[in-house]
Design a protein that fits this description.
249 residues; alpha+beta; OB fold (Dihydrolipoamide Acetyltransferase, E2P); 2 domains; five-stranded antiparallel sheet; 4 helices; rod-shaped
Length: 249
């Protein structure tokens, strides 16, 4: 997983968590009048009829008094069929700080609403946890260390696989030696130009356990490159290392 994929996975995971939190917040908003609301009697003043593709449905227009004086109205639904007539009495729940958000008390509708939103929130939350775990596992499994090993395996193929009729020999120059980011090893970086190219390419040798010293810089290197895929190559580092070792004696 590269950094772009990791970012997208993290954003998707975050959105799932946000969606689950939003569902729980909406569930609380639905239940708040039942938990904190004041109960009063309301009167049905009109039965509103609506039409949709799925059929006709009805809503109740209810009037109720706040504090025994101020008259308010709400549009709601009830499972009790006896409420669907003008003049019927219904129980209304409202927040004294926000009477416009009043609802018709119906515990059946409340239970169904809370069940559905709770189930949706659990699904989103579970999806968020699963997405997070999968993205994290993917990062751990296919993160920098995995790519380092794969790149090394791809670059430093077994030499018998570099068939003579499927490879080219490049004369390269050692450009630098760097410390491996994933281990205590060192990587020798060479520079060479592919046939027909105008700019040189960089080729990394198989990591070694010691620093070869500054005398390796500028040394000539042989690099075998696969004709079918230039990312597959073998840097012949051993002869140069052997020469440097002999020079120390």
């Amino acid at each position: 997983m590269n950094w772009k994929e990791l970012i997208f996975a993290s954003i998707g995971t975050l959105l799932l968590f946000i969606a689950s939190i939003a569902c729980w917040a909406w569930s609380y908003q639905v239940a708040a009048p039942y938990l904190l609301g004041v109960t009063v009697q309301g009167e049905v003043v009109e039965v509103l009829k609506y039409r949709s593709r799925d059929g006709d449905f009805h809503r109740l227009l209810v009037e109720f008094l706040v504090g025994g004086e101020a008259k308010h109205r709400l549009i709601g639904k009830s499972n009790d069929e006896s409420h669907y007539k003008i003049g019927a009495t219904v129980k209304v729940l409202y927040d004294p700080q926000d009477p416009e958000a009043a609802v018709i008390a119906d515990f059946t509708l409340l239970s169904v609403g809370l069940f559905l939103t709770g189930l949706l929130a659990l699904l989103f939350l579970g999806g968020g946890i699963l997405a997070f775990r999968r993205s994290w596992r993917s990062y751990k499994t296919f993160g920098p260390e995995f790519h380092r090993k794969m790149d090394a395996a791809t670059r430093e193929m077994d030499r018998p696989e570099l068939a003579k009729d499927k490879r080219i020999l490049l004369k390269g120059v050692v450009e630098s030696v760097r410390r491996s980011a994933a281990s205590e090893e060192y990587v020798v970086v060479c520079r060479a130009t592919l046939p027909g190219a105008t700019r040189p390419e960089h080729f990394e040798a198989k990591p070694i356990s010691f620093h070869p010293g500054r005398r390796i810089l500028g040394r000539s290197e042989e690099i075998y490159v696969d004709l079918r895929k230039k990312e597959r190559y073998a840097v012949m580092l051993e002869p140069v290392l052997a020469e440097l070792q002999s020079a120390k004696r």
